[in-house]
Amino acid sequence: MWATAPLAFPWKLLGALWGPLGSLWGSLAPLLLWLRAALRLGLGWTHRGQGRRDGPEPQGAGEEEEGGGGPDGPLTPTSVNYHFTRQCNYKCGFCFHTAKTSFVLPLEEAQRGLRLLKEAGMEKVNFSGGEPFLQDRGEYLGRLVRFCKQELRLPSVSIVSNGSLIRERWFVKYGQYLDILAISCDSFNEDVNVLIGRGQGRLNHVENLRKLRRWCREYRVAFKINSVINRFNVDEDMRAHIQELNPVRWKVFQCLLIDGENAGPGALREAERFVISKEEFQSFLDRHRGVPCLVPECNDKMKDSYLILDEYMRFLNCREGRKDPSRSILDVGVEEAIKFSGFDEETFRKRGGKYVWSKADLKLDW
Fold it and tell me: 335: closest CA among 82, 47, 59, 106?
């Protein structure tokens, strides 16, 4: 009998404590389950709820480095450049987005993709090409601009164009929905523009630029100029012309080579003869240092700091000096596709990618 007493005592003690322990577990169980769920959400899911962070290899991108958001979460497509067409009526020798296809998405599909981007965090969309006013004489573009401002209520909608196909009636119909119009102008010497490939018959590119500046003022659209600095304009002094036109921003790019677009096998352009060195580019910037609207971008800043969407709504990764496409956001969603964009958010911030980009906030003297 005494031999069994040591065994009986623990069981009696456990029986006495069972009631209190059961009550304690009943209180702790919901808390533990909540913590487990929270850890799963924090480790395995994104803060925007668009699916898991892991996924299949992107179509056509090869073994590209993922452009994930690191410890802070997934990438956000704050500012997106949508090149919905590759077709163009100019033949700029250094063009880095050439007419390799004639494809343009049906309008409804393009709008569906833009809505996906807005839901993923897009605040600004920039429509480009090719020449974006070429499709349906600007009507396709106008309807996208209106959709983004009226339906999606994006803070900023902008366009980059060579300006040759823009008519005043477009401003009358769609100008109210457009925040910024950027016109590409690489020289204020018309002979140099023709040499570069920005010539089209009797149309004078510089005179047309001034006309577009007037229309932007009349229809309350912020006016911007983009210039690619290359072998044929690197010694030009543009200060007086830029000050006269008074754009909200003058974006100055160093001529960039992209394999398969303007350099290497399969390229439709041979831009090597346009290339300048970093020192030559810096010399141009030094000459124009006093221009307050100047925003310079060398090649190192350009390659990884833009979210570029092609005509199929695929993100284009330029990290390897070429354009490797992700799968389309229409097929796999924004979060999955953007992983393979090569986009560097830190470089985007450092180059001033986020600025006052809504005409409502620019407080311009119209």
Answer: 47
Instruction: Encode burial over 244-262: b for 16+ CB neighbours within 10 A, e otherwise.
Output: ebebbbbbbbbbbbbebbb
Judge whether residue 62 has pLDDT over 60: no
Annotated active-site residue 88? The verdict is: yes
pLDDT (average), residues 264-292: 93
Average pLDDT, integer, range 82-108: 92
Model's pTM, two decimal places?
0.78
> What mean pLDDT is reported for the chain?
82
Catalytic residue among 92, 216, 255, 318: 92
- What average pLDDT does range 308-336 have in this prediction? 93
**Residue of 95, 148, 185, 318 marked active site:** 95
pLDDT score for 72: 57
Known active-site residue 255: no
Quick count: other Cβ atoms within 10 Å of Cβ 232?
21
d(CA 168, CA 149): 20
Question: Is the per-residue pLDDT at 222 higher than 60?
Answer: yes
Query: What 3-state class would DSSP assign to 125?
Result: strand
| Distance, CA of 195 to CA of 92 (rounded, Å) | 9
Q: Write 343-349 long-range contacts (CB < 8 A, 24+).
A: 343/67, 343/75, 343/304, 343/305, 343/306, 343/307, 343/315, 344/67, 344/304, 344/305, 345/69, 345/75, 345/76, 347/301, 347/304, 347/305, 348/78, 348/79, 348/305, 348/306
pLDDT band at 223 (very low <50, low <70, confident <90, very high): very high
Which residue is associated with the tokens 């499709």? 135
Residue 298: active-site member: no
Tokens of 236: 């030009």
H helix intervals, the chain: 5-44, 107-119, 139-146, 168-174, 190-196, 205-218, 239-245, 278-287, 299-304, 329-332, 334-338, 345-350, 359-362
CA 133 – CA 144 distance, rounded (Å): 12
Is residue 136 over pLDDT 90?
Answer: yes
